[in-house]
Amino acid sequence: MDENIYQAYEDEIQALEEEIWLLTEKYEDMRQESTFFSDEEILKSIKSLERETQEETKGHESLSDLKAQLESLETDLSFLMKFTGFQFTSHSKQTVERTRNRMVQKHRLSGKCHSLSFQLEFQLLEMQNNEKVSAVVSDLSIIMESREDSNVSKFVSSTEEHGSLLSFFRSLSTYAEWYEHRRRTFLHFK
């Protein structure tokens, strides 16, 4: 009988440890949730950070090195935006479920590709088995500017059904680039 009491206590301790771990993870997720910030807020934060680093650079990297790194990152971002045509305007994520080897997050993403606006909502399920991590996209919802082109609406429906983000971004990039060429051509003839 004494062993049953000890086992019950051990089970209760293990359940409490699991609950503490889950609450800690939930707290960390809430702290790290990404939200949309305007360009003005980002610039204010950068300037504030620059002022703080000017005061705290003693014994650390020089301010000029940090500025060079920032300029390099801005150049890389600018290149990627010009190369792909994508400009993301907002992103938010919310953790829906989290256990030791499984996490479900809900993402909202909006932006433009050349002149076409889009919004995405999807859930990302990440599962970890041993050292391997797999991710699955589900509940994909795509909202684009209303276009009369039925092929685009068919493509969006097919992409939502298959949950293929990669094919969406690849195809949108190509379509938006040619859409811009067609638009400029028609403007030329008007």
From TrEMBL:
Report TM segments.
Answer: none
Gene Ontology terms: cellular component: chromosome, centromeric region; nucleus
Q: Sorted alphabetically, which keywords does the UniProt record give?
A: Coiled coil
Q: Which residues form a coiled coil?
A: 6-33
Q: Among its keywords, does the record have Coiled coil?
A: yes
What is a biological process (GO) this protein takes part in? CENP-A containing chromatin assembly
Q: Which InterPro entries match?
A: CENP-P
Q: What is this protein called?
A: CENPP protein
Natural source organism: Callaeas wilsoni
Species classification:
Eukaryota, Metazoa, Chordata, Craniata, Vertebrata
Name of the encoding gene = Cenpp
